[in-house]
Amino acid sequence: MTKIVVVHTGPVTVEPLKAQFAQQLPDARVVNIVDDSLLADVRTAGYLTPEVTERLYTYMSNAQSMGADIILNACSSVGEATDLLRGMIRTPIVKVDEAMAEEASALGARIGVVATVSTTLEPTVRLIGKKAAEQGRTIDVTECIAQGAFEALLAGDSAKHDDILRRAIIELADHVDVIVLAQVSMARLVPALGSLPVPVLSSPQSGVGAVRHALSRAA
């Protein structure tokens, strides 16, 4: 049986990804490693610290020892650590937002990125810029922080989180060609957005799709 280990920096990414694995890779065994101190430490410092990267290495090394066929990094805030760890871990590592960034940079020149924490916004913007450069495309990125949304979600007020985020997305839609939701936890809002003039991309579906494609290539 295929074994996939997912490394989470908080509990809010577990269920959205579990649902996607059930749809796309129903026969795989998915093991979740959750350490909510990782994102908390990144947010406190304001950037990805060496200590967080070291702990991520430990978790991914453990995943390798568990016999994982592939590892999924579920958090954009620590995604850049994956670039380093790919050279240290033998097991293939997929970043949950990489396929989404590639798609966004191919869809339009004006890209809006919405996040609820700045530590996710900045690496997502850099990732999109990197993918656009690889495609030889010139892009303009509009950054948007939905202030107060993440705190509402942590406090258990999902309705407030959704309201803040929905308004931010709708306002941004008139000024860009495509909108990227920078966090897995934001994806559940997409069905409730209704008709918008631009596509809205979220990472759970494409991230798990990238896992599926990586597994098929390795087969």
From TrEMBL:
Recorded superkingdom: Bacteria
Pfam families with a match to the protein in the record: Asp_Glu_race
GO function term, MF aspect, one: amino-acid racemase activity
InterPro entries: Asp/Glu/hydantoin_racemase (IPR015942), Iso_Racemase_Enz_sf (IPR053714)
UniProt similarity note: Belongs to the HyuE racemase family.
Protein name, per record: Asp/Glu/Hydantoin racemase
Organism name: Caballeronia cordobensis
